[in-house]
Amino acid sequence: MVTKVYIMLYLCCSDLSVENLQYLSSQQALADVAYFIETMNKQYQLNDSNKARRWVAFGGSYAGALAAWLRVKYPHLVFASVSSSSPLHAKLDFKEYYEGFRQALRAKTSSLDCENKIKESHKELVDMIKKNPKAVWEDFISCEPYSNPSTDDLNQFYNYIAFNLAGIVQDNEINRLSIPIEFRNITINTICDMFTKSNDKAYDALVKVIRLIARMSNWGCLYYNYKINEMQLKNTTIEEDLGRQWTYQQCTEFGYFQTSTAVADLFGDNFPVDYEIRTCQDLFGTKFDKKFITSSIDWTNNYYGGQNIKARRVLFVQGSIDPWHVMGIYKSQSKDMPAIFINGTSHCADLYNERDEDSKELVAARLKIREYLETWLAQPWT
């Protein structure tokens, strides 16, 4: 049996204006994949008499949700799906994300020390901003130093601090070949050691951690100015950065706004859901208010089924350290909708290249995925 792997790249429009972004949706993405499969089936005369028409969808994160939804909406075209770290349940205020961040710190360090140091660093940061904001912008390598930040600027700043710390948690211990070798061992324990095993004040430790993340991400400086970030996200030119597109889908389908609602003690309640909603309106228009976004999220969950989707031959894979796992399926629903919950792993860990350092739980999970697929591919298409 010959196995082919296809990578789809497509553009619908000349720019990313709101008028054109209306064609950017999960439903359209699924329809595009379905059309591609149908075209390949016809072009290569694929049929199920020799099991040549056994399309298996793989995806991680949003693409993992798409892989599962393909089996829900196009079961006659897609034979099976592996859905990794997929957030199936759309939600406006995804306050659980940073609560997952907190639980990951505790799980990986077996202590509250790191969490407490981050709390302390936030208190010291708030004091520093009041006393010497210019020094803060220099410490945190702001692209545009300024001494009188607006409330929007501060909200953006605190959001960025939390976002960058959470990125280390979300990608913890995965085999990231896309970053320089010197940074591939940056993990939860690395940054927690910087907070807890040095003589630095908590604020100074936070500065060092953010500067490390900036080097790892090859950021020369960081924009904390709300208006500048708004201007960048309003750019309708099609570029490599996908910030505008994903934000649009958040505002029209999913929400998933990672707010400070549940972690005010860690980061302050500086980026609540209202802040995110106003960002939608600033970028795309006043109609994108709370009522519109909430209605769109409800439609998404009704259309796909949220965490109660019904399908056959869909395998869900989640990691216990991944803050996204609570939005997906991490317990087996039936023999046709099994789940693998990998203790100690993070976002999409199973999809990365194997390496000697992989945990035994991750190694076992990859073998289990293979076993499920081998069993399913031996079955008739029913």
Question: Can you put this structure into words, describing what you see?
Answer:
It is a single chain. The longest helix is centred in the middle third of the chain and has 20 residues, at 151-170. This protein has helices at residues 18-21, 26-43, 62-73, 96-109, 113-131, 133-139, 151-170, 188-196, 202-216, 226-233, 243-254, 264-267, 273-284, 290-304, 360-377; strands at residues 56-60, 80-84, 91-93, 255-257, 314-319, 339-342. The chain has two domains: 18-88 and 305-377, Rossmann fold (3-Layer(aba) Sandwich); 93-298. Helix content is 49%, strand content 7%. The strands form two sheets. The protein has a four-stranded parallel beta sheet. A two-stranded parallel ribbon has the order 3-4. It contains 15 helices and six strands. Helix 3 links the parallel strand 1 and strand 2. It is an alpha/beta fold. It starts with 17 loop residues before the first helix and ends in a 5-residue tail after the last helix.
Which short descriptors sum up this protein?
alpha/beta; AB_hydrolase_fold; single chain; protease; Serine protease K12H4.7; 382 residues; globular; four-stranded parallel β-sheet; Rossmann fold; 6 strands; 2 domains; dipeptidyl-peptidase activity; Peptidase_S28; two-stranded parallel sheet
